[in-house]
Design goal:
Blueprint (H helix, E strand, L loop, with lengths): L23 H18 L4 H24 L7 E3 H6 L4 H10 L1 E5 L4 H17 L2 H4 L17 E2 L5 H7 L2 H11 L22 E5 L6 E4 L8 E5 L5 H4 L1 H6 L1 H4 L32 E6 L10 E3 L5 H7 L20 E2 L2 H8 L3 E2 L8 E5 L4 E3 L9 E5 L4 E2 L1 H16 L26 H6 L4
Parallel strand pairs: 1-2
Antiparallel strand pairs: 2-11, 3-5, 4-14, 5-13, 6-9, 6-12, 7-11, 7-13, 8-10, 8-12
């Protein structure tokens, strides 16, 4: 059978802006023209390159639809005991790579998780949080509809105990290991063979908030979006290198599990940004939750990021538009531009307190609306963020916020806990906690 070959010539350099440009529409027009020219110079067309990714996504979409029709659980589910013992079956690992998301059953003992939930309530009530709460300071999470639902609390003993626990570190290391942490002949990426992008065994202790949604609550949920960045994904040099295969004629080599050039380099600031590199976003359940009670949904197709990056280059999108992506807002995904992806939106299965839920850092996700919620919907957000240059820098930020009881830099400047006497203290840090904050 004949095979197509593409004669690679020297490709044109891309303009880049490592800080947000003053003229955003102008920069978007310039980068779109440059990306189209680079793809064309590789011997392929934008439409041809997009069709490769679209076909990969369509196959996954059809598989997910078939599983849903058979009432199968689309989300992979792995027992914590298998992760701890190193006995996760190969077929489950393959499914994790295929879907890019995971429920870890029994990550923590259910009674432990329920106890943490009670401890968090004791913590906020003992410090009169509800009397001093000033309302949501986050334009995005402030839209969910109950007051408060997202608590701007970071340094409770319960949260810190979970973050620095050995059980958390084992799962995070397992998830990090699904990525290729060491370079192996990165072509055109400017990395030498053997370059290490991150240490999968060491974690940044990334502080995030909690969600507590009470029984009987009504919530409008959160729309479909993703969190790896905004216009910086096309405009900064590091991201251009990270997504190089989409733009240099080698789209078949695009691998969503390759972290090359993503663990250093700049990010554009914004109220919904994450300064850290996360292999997986995640949360740990502090209550039981039914699958139909306003829970997390994802598009469980890791390759969808390639679709999202190439879609604005098609001719039906205005030259100054990236399908609605702009700075200081979340990266939107919607029916207008991404209808094929939206077809695959899939919710998590039933969750018990102590389970944890994880999804690839590039994955489209949302939270479904709910009316008259049955049971509580309580989680603490804890990601997998391996040690790397970007995360080492953020560790210094997190460390200072921890010592002073402040809101970390990635979040609104609310600082409720500064004077709370019973917040977690430096003397209570374990070895994992000290390493995660860069203290060892």
């Amino acid at each position: 059978m004949a095979t197509s070959t593409y004669v690679r010539t020297e490709l044109p350099e891309l303009p880049h802006w490592d800080t947000p440009p003053d003229d955003l529409p102008g920069a978007v027009r310039q980068i779109k023209a440059a990306l189209r020219a680079r793809i064309q110079a590789s011997g392929r067309s934008v439409e041809e390159v997009f069709a490769v990714i679209e076909q990969r996504v369509r196959r996954a979409d059809e598989q997910i639809a078939a599983e849903q029709a058979r009432r199968e659980t689309v989300w992979p589910v792995i027992d914590y005991a298998d992760i701890a013992a190193g006995t996760v079956p190969p077929e489950q690992l393959a499914r994790l790579h295929q879907r890019g998301c995971l429920v870890v059953r029994g990550h923590f003992d259910r009674d432990q998780a329920l106890g943490w939930d009670r401890d968090i309530m004791d913590y906020v009530e003992s410090n009169r949080f509800f009397e001093t709460y000033r309302g949501p300071a986050d334009d995005f999470f402030g839209s969910v509809g109950s007051r408060p639902e997202i608590y701007p609390i970071y340094w409770s003993p319960a949260q810190m105990q979970a973050r620095q626990s050995d059980r958390m570190a084992r799962v995070q290391a397992f998830l990090n290991a699904q990525w290729t942490s060491q370079a192996d002949g990165v072509q055109g990426g400017g990395a030498r063979d053997g370059a290490r992008w991150f240490d999968p065994q060491r974690q940044l202790l990334y502080p995030d908030r909690i969600r507590r949604r009470p029984e009987g609550a009504d919530s409008v949920g959160l729309g479909t979006h993703l969190d790896p960045g905004t216009l910086d994904l096309w405009l900064t040099q590091a991201c251009q290198q990270a997504f190089r295969h989409l733009f240099d004629g080698t789209v078949e080599a695009y691998d969503p599990w390759d972290p090359a050039h993503r663990t250093d380099g700049p990010q554009y600031p914004g109220t919904t940004m994450c300064s850290a590199f996360r292999t997986f976003q995640g949360w740990t359940a502090l209550s039981d939750m039914g699958h139909d009670q306003g829970v997390l949904h994802t598009v469980p197709i890791p390759e969808a990021m390639g679709y999202l990056m190439l879609r604005p280059l098609l001719s039906d999108v205005a030259d100054d538009d990236m399908c609605g992506v702009t700075t200081n807002q979340v990266f939107p995904a919607n029916q207008t531009w991404h209808s094929l992806l939206m077809d695959a939106l899939t919710g998590i299965p039933d969750i018990r307190a102590g389970d944890s839920v994880w999804w690839h850092c590039d994955m489209i996700h949302s939270v479904a609306p709910v009316q008259n919620q049955q049971g509580w919907g309580n989680v603490m957000y804890i990601p997998a963020a391996p040690w790397c240059p970007r995360n080492e820098r953020y560790a210094a930020v997190a460390r200072e916020a921890f010592i002073t009881g402040s809101s970390p830099r990635d979040f609104p400047d609310e600082n409720y806990e500064r004077d709370w006497p019973n917040r977690f203290r430096p003397d209570d840090l374990s070895e994992n906690g000290r390493r995660g904050l860069g203290l060892d």
